[in-house]
Amino acid sequence: MDQTTSLIQPSPFMGIFLLLILGTLGLPFPEDTTLILSGFLMAQDIIQSLPALLIIYPTLLMTDFLLYWIGKRYGRRVVEHKIFHRILSLNRLLKLEEKFQKWGIWVVFFGRPLLGVRAQIFLVAGVMRMPARKFLLADALSALITMAIMIGIGYFGGSQIQLLKEDLARMNRMIMFSVVLIFLGWSLFRYFRRKKIRLV
What we know:
This protein is mostly helical. The chain contains 8 helices and no strands. Helix 4 (49-74) crosses helix 7 and helix 4 runs antiparallel to helix 8 (132-199).
């Protein structure tokens, strides 16, 4: 998370966009982590929610459709490519093809939230030549769910951290105030004690 955060500090919106793209290309920036981070940044008022969502949602659909298009363009040959072979093996392709033949677009809808098989499903949807409109419909609806859950986790966590910081700040102020009161009370006690001793 620290590495991911450092990449977006100069320009948060552009950083989030790039992280989603790089994650699609197989680099170690999972989509879910980026979404959770986005929610955290919203909770901390580092980015505004509406502009962030207007960037995140279309980018999710664009990156998903890119993998779909690659699968449709190259068919089963995609498993022979050195980049995509790491994502989709021939054995996995055959298993997912069976699921697509049985369940169709529901594989996209229910499979998209699953991090481990998400990219595989997009590629196989293309390999199976699912109509683009059906793919986009199932993907768009499922992406809304994924986005809401992951950003919600980040936002809730960020809000809790902010509340914790506020509680700690109040506690520190109370401690400092108590220390000052104790010091003043002790000083007054010693002052009157000395004065009483002198009078005696």
